[in-house]
Each structure stands twice: as C-alpha cells, then as structure tokens.
Amino acid sequence: MEIHSLPTLLDASQWTYRGEGNANVVFSADLADPTHAAARALLGTRHAILRVSKTGHAGGSPGAAAVDTVAFVRRVVHPLFPAKHMPRVAAVAVTREFLAALHDGAAGVRPDARAAAAHVDVSQPVAVLAPDYARMEGSGPTVCLEIKPKWLFTTHGGECSKPNRDGRSPSPDACRFCMHQRLKGATKVSAFCPLDLLSDHTLADAVDALLATPQNNLRVWVDGRAVDVTADLAPHDAVAQQLHAVAGAGSLRPVVRTVLGELGPLFHALAHHQRLLDGGEIEKVHALYAAHADRWSGAVGVETWERAVQRYLAAEAKDGWQELVEFVLSMTLKDCSVLVTLAPAGAVADEGGEEESQISTVRIPGHDAAVSFRAVLLDLDPKQFKKVPDWFKLDQDIKAHYAEFVAARSTPSP
User: Fold this and answer.
1) Taking the CB of residue 3, how many other CB atoms lie within 10 A of it?
2) Beta-carbon neighbour count of residue 94 at 10 Å?
3) What is the enclosing helix (H) or strand (E) of 254?
4) Which helix or strand (DSSP H or E) is residue 38 part of?
5) For 366, left (φ over 0), alpha (ψ -120 to 50), or beta?
C-alpha cells in the first residue's frame, strides 16, 4: 500500500478540528492553494479530511492502523458496492511535530470527556486522507444528511412486526434494530424500522420515524450548520431559506424522502451483503471464535480479509474460519453510515475525474429545482475479532429482554 508524501499538508494552521470517534480525531481543510495541487489530484477535490489515530487505539506496528484502514476500504469493501458509493482514501506520511501541533490546536475545542480519555497519538507516522464528503465542489449552499441504516434484514428471514409503532401488538417476529430499542431504554423509543428503507411502500414511514426520533440514525447539516430535525422550520428561518435555495423545498421531509428513495439500490445491496455475511447463527459464530483463537489472536492482515471476500463473491464452500471472517465483516456493514450531500444542480462541478462520477441529479416532487447529490459509504473500518464475545452477549441480552417485553404485553391485566 503506497504511503503518499505530501509535505504541503503538514502545516497544522490550515487544519480545523471537525470531530472524533473512539479511535480517531478528524480535521478538515480547504486545499485551494496552488501548492496543494498533488493532494487535490489525489482526492479529486480541494475539500479534505485528515483522520489521525488516538493514543491507545492504533495497535500493531507504527502506522499500521491507517495503512490497514485504507487497504481494507479499497480491497475488501470496494468489491461489494458500486464505485460511485465508495470513498476515496489514501495513506499519507505525517510527522510527530505536525501531530503535536494538531493536538495543541484542538485542545480548546475537543469535548472534555474525549480530551481526558485520549490524545492525538504523535507516534504514528501515517494518517488517513480523504475528501470532505460533507462539501461539494462548486458554489452555493449545501445540505448534508448522514443516515445510519443499521441492520437491514431479519435473522428469521421474514418481515418485521414493527413492534414500536403506535397501535402495534409486539410479536416475536421483529428485526434486530426494533428489538434493541427496547433494551436501550431510551426516553422515547424510535418507531424507525430499517427494513422500511427497502420498499417504496414503507419509505414514508421510515422518513416520518427518523424525523420524529432521529437518535444517531439521522443527522442533518445545512451549509455546515447542524439542524434539529425534530423542530418545525419557520418559512423565514435561515435554515429553511438555505434548504429552499438548495432543494427548492422549505422543509426537510420532501428532501429526505426523495433522497432515500434514490438510495434504494444501495440499501438493497447493503441488506444483501449484511444478511449473507452474517449467516444468522451468532451462537455458532461464538463457538467458531473460540475454536479459531490461534488465527485471530495475532494480526489479521488485509490479505486474509481480501481472500475471504473473494471466496464469498465466488460462492465457494465455507469452512469455520471463513464463516467467522465473514461475520466480522458483516459487523462493519451493519455499522456503516451513508453520507449524502446535496447542492443546487447548476452550482456543482463534477469531481469524478477519470473514475465513475459520484454526482447524480434528482428533482424534489412538487418543487421546481433540480438537485445534485452524492451518496458515499463511510465508517468502513475493520472490526476486531476480539469483539465477538461482546456481540454475542449483546445479542443474548436483546433477545431475552425483548422476549420479556412481548410476554408482559401479551399477559392479560388482572
């Protein structure tokens, strides 16, 4: 895997703290200066994201985490989906001094809990560079939607009973997401069912549920400003006006409904691979985890993942190790995000370069404006095999709690 040397990137003053997860801190930059021509050519845009490792999370040899992530996205996940929905990622060389400067620059803006738990790991010589998919090349305002579809199938192979909808009687035939809502004990249980994303007949139900109780399954930014999707937008509200400038609509519902409808083939592809890779037998996977401890306890290289995907796509006979690797890969696909960016059609420059264009155009029903949009899969890092016991326990807890919930609702009141 090539590690790119781009010295012009190593000026911490041009990078702005964007956010962070458990294992990485993310910074963004506008690489419009002519000195960044090589980086722009690599990314296909001047809008860049740099993801750097946190202390205690990189593991392996120095730089391995970033290199492995890039290789995993390119060689393992990419063969499963159309190129237009895959992110461009690259491994880039960084220095201790640069990372220390990034850490110092973010000190005043990182959440206190995150800052206390871990720092930027200045010992890592490699970081992940990618386009800032929340932006689009060109002029004009943008709307950005992040959707976490989660599990798009049922382990029993049938329909979900939608137990969290008003007026529905709970039954055992529920999907994993709907059952998990009951275990989480949220103040307001979400009526969203991921399976509703797979049909035009139920898509409106999915949109209504996401807008009513977004949790972490829907996030929206209008021109970089986070939007409370549960709030009604007044016609003269700045967000409503920007939304109208982008999509010709002054509310989120028609925009979200139209975009999710356009993503039907992507959701179906996700559902297909999630279901087949999962295998439907967590108890068996847990046993395979113990049986193959000698193989996963060491470093699992990208070659192992790549060979497993090749065997999966070729529908070859599976041994126990193949089933275990496929299941762990399925967990990446069950936790990924779809980032959708929209802008007025006339204000967008095609960033596709020599690759298949990622830009599509759609019209919002009932509105005149044409909208350009791009949908990219993100959060595609490889999961760790050592998480299998945790996943097994969570699965058992979800099923047990949901069975108690169904029994309690089914028992007549005295």
Assistant:
1) 16
2) 23
3) helix 252-262
4) helix 37-43
5) left
Work out the pLDDT band at 414, boundaries 50, 70, 90: low
Q: What confidence category does residue 269 fall into, taking pLDDT thresholds of 50, 70 and 90?
A: very high
Tally: H helices and E strands in the chain: 14, 12
**Contact assessment for residue 114 and residue 195, using Cβ atoms and an 8 Å cutoff:** no
In this structure, how many other beta carbons lie within 10 angstroms of the beta carbon of residue 29?
23
Strand partners, 26: 19, 51
* Token couple for 348: 């967008």
Distance in angstroms (rounded) separating the CA atoms of residues 230 and 192? 14
Nearest to 387 by CA among 13, 6, 22: 22
Residues near 116 by Cβ (< 8 Å), separated by ≥ 6? none
Length of the chain: 414
Contact by Cβ (8 Å): 67, 126: yes
Percent of the chain with pLDDT over 90: 64
Residue 370 neighbours by CB under 8 Å, 6+ apart: 344, 345, 346, 361, 362, 363
> What is the pTM assigned to this prediction?
0.90
- Other C-beta atoms closer than 10 Å to the C-beta of 131 total 25
Contact 115, 192 (CB under 8 A): no
Query: Under a CB-based contact definition with an 8 Å cutoff, are residues 346 and 302 in contact?
Result: no
What is the distance between the alpha carbons of residues 201 and 263, in angstroms, rounded to a whole number? 14
Per-residue pLDDT at 124: 95
Q: Tokens 């009526």 correspond to what residue? A: 191
Distance CA 52, CA 224 (A): 22
CA distance readout (Å), 51 to 26, 126, 358, 414: 5, 10, 22, 58
- What is residue 25's DSSP assignment? E
The single-letter DSSP state of residue 381 is P
State the pLDDT at residue 412. 57
**Torsion sign over Cα 125, 131, 133, 134:** positive
- CB < 8 Å & 24+ apart, contacts of 206-209: 206/260, 207/253, 207/256, 207/257, 207/260, 208/253
Which residues, in sequence order, are bridge partners of residue 195? Answer: none
Q: Euclidean distance between the first and final Cα of the chain, in Å?
A: 67
